[in-house]
């Protein structure tokens, strides 16, 4: 459903924060069923993004809700979902590393084992058709953990509409596995959990907005403990990359044999890359926005770039713009909430794309803190 072009809509870039931690009413949080301790919104960010049947826009916002006082009495506390409600686990401070403000690591383990002082759930936020005003916040349609493989939360929704169905992938975090899960909807607002579709640490899965040769297609980004070296004269850098997978039904996926998008030597995204927005079909092919990370401190600098894929064979990459970023973090946008910042490096993480006349609207997480909407003319991608 594409609204008509608006006069002058493609004249200039428009950029603003649309939803911040201060916009969340924690009295309506699902964590109230079990957690009496004070909490706060660590971040309201990385939203899935789509257009609803009524023409309005929907952000499916990740709410990272954290304990206001995770450390007390010589212990650090982790929030965990159970079928009976939310509980706190206690870990002695002598057994953990608290260097990262988002998590803590258990010391002395043969594998890297993490726990979280926050838990993420998903909040649908409805915007007007232009993405400039909040229409409603749908706490009654919030998505929270519903299975033991989600006991540390549900993160980073990506929404794609194919035909009359909305497909939403999420990252489910739990002690059992760190996996990709699928939700479906018939109205774009209310979603049903379909279960696990990709296993351990296959992050940033995003379905193409349309079928390719009668098959669903998706971007994936499997992570591992080790990567193998390319030859010294190769243009590529080993590490996390964007791969492709195909499915007959959006539930059962086979990775494509061909390589996908890979980090290139000399680029500002040489540390790692990963999917961002759902690929959409343009006259020139499938256009997608992805994130690239430059190594810096513990987190790295996240920027958004874009690529163009062949319409009939998306594994054939027609163009990659990895030199000049499409989007970078903008400190001016977060100046009024700078006291809530907790990451040491600039981060913008684009997560959804919607057509609006002569423009694209891009939804992003800014600083792992808030939701950003950017309006760019389609001519920017020609």
TrEMBL record:
Recorded coiled-coil stretches: none
Pfam families according to UniProt: Glyco_hydro_130 (PF04041)
Keywords assigned: Glycosyltransferase, Transferase
Presence of the UniProt keyword Transferase in the record: yes
Presence of the UniProt keyword Transferase in the record: yes
InterPro entries xref list: Glyco_hydro_beta-prop_sf, Mannoside_phosphorylase
Molecular function as annotated in GO: glycosyltransferase activity
Listed PANTHER family: GLYCOSIDASE
Protein name: Glycosidase
